[in-house]
């Protein structure tokens, strides 16, 4: 890519910039693709694809990049379409806008020809939450939960089945509760760690995978520590 920099009334300087140097500024950290319908969180000014951040906020109220709380009850209110950023992405990435336009036209034609029909033979006019399973059709992640080896009592409070498969919307606090139930311990005695880092309870598996394990094979390796009970 080439940029023209004006150094004076008659001087024009041409500077070459590699796309890989710009990618980190125009790529969504949730899907690892270029921004589509770029949307910015007004609290911290981090930008994501609209569909990615809307789906992410269904299970979390914190920014996936900086953990800033977006809104206590309605985080979608603090999202704003960033048309300037989207225009920049379309101009920097050749063919992206045309490709996105063709995809949207294809799906609009497909839906008009093949309306979605439920088991009763009637097209869906709205989503019926009462008939839906909350986590059944979610994206899933595979985990391996290992006991931290620094503990003195290695044979006690050890999980027998260490492999877990759960929804990407599950949070660290959910894993802690499952561990406490299986190990028969109080919640304050168990911590979830990635390496030596204690993970916050509000972090989701999607955020954890993308920020710590992206590009590596499943399962995601986590450790848990058990605090010794005081006598």
Automatic annotation (TrEMBL):
<keyword id="KW-0862">Zinc</keyword>
<keyword id="KW-0804">Transcription</keyword>
<dbReference type="InterPro" id="IPR001841">
    <property type="entry name" value="Znf_RING"/>
</dbReference>
<keyword id="KW-0863">Zinc-finger</keyword>
<dbReference type="InterPro" id="IPR013083">
    <property type="entry name" value="Znf_RING/FYVE/PHD"/>
</dbReference>
<dbReference type="GO" id="GO:1990841">
    <property type="term" value="F:promoter-specific chromatin binding"/>
</dbReference>
<keyword id="KW-0805">Transcription regulation</keyword>
<keyword id="KW-0678">Repressor</keyword>
<dbReference type="Pfam" id="PF16207">
    <property type="entry name" value="RAWUL"/>
</dbReference>
<dbReference type="InterPro" id="IPR032443">
    <property type="entry name" value="RAWUL"/>
</dbReference>
<dbReference type="Pfam" id="PF13923">
    <property type="entry name" value="zf-C3HC4_2"/>
</dbReference>
<feature type="domain" description="RING-type">
    <location>
        <begin position="28"/>
        <end position="67"/>
    </location>
</feature>
<dbReference type="GO" id="GO:0008270">
    <property type="term" value="F:zinc ion binding"/>
</dbReference>
<dbReference type="GO" id="GO:0006338">
    <property type="term" value="P:chromatin remodeling"/>
</dbReference>
<dbReference type="GO" id="GO:0000122">
    <property type="term" value="P:negative regulation of transcription by RNA polymerase II"/>
</dbReference>
<dbReference type="GO" id="GO:0035102">
    <property type="term" value="C:PRC1 complex"/>
</dbReference>
<dbReference type="InterPro" id="IPR017907">
    <property type="entry name" value="Znf_RING_CS"/>
</dbReference>
<protein>
    <recommendedName>
        <fullName>Polycomb group RING finger protein 1</fullName>
    </recommendedName>
</protein>
<dbReference type="GO" id="GO:0005654">
    <property type="term" value="C:nucleoplasm"/>
</dbReference>
<keyword id="KW-0539">Nucleus</keyword>
<keyword id="KW-0479">Metal-binding</keyword>
